[in-house]
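Problem 12. The chain below contains 104 residues. Write out its predicted structure in token notation.
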Amino acid sequence: MLQADVFVMSPSKDHPTLRYFLSYRGTGVPLNFCEELAPDALRHRNTYFRAGYDSAGRMLWCEKMVYEEVEMRHDYTWDATGRLTQAMITVGEEEPQVLRLRAA
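Solution.
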């Protein structure tokens, strides 16, 4: 399993805003989360997603948490216009897979 990173809950470039979710829908990137959870609801959950957002509302990374360990992680790169250009996906101890996205 991957080691979980600890982040501060204040929005800035170096410290994204944390949000928590029960699930996601669809298959594309970035993941499309649904059912947002309040931080105090996490103590009764074994599995949930957490995601870090920049001040523009773009998801920078997300993690699937299972029993307080990171089971899967996505890291996203955005260009200056707000277009997703790259997604790096890591599952467990496997080598990360990098998806480079083209302009539409």
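Discussion. Confidence is low (pLDDT under 50) at residues 1-10. Students who got a different answer should revisit the alignment rule from Section 12.3.
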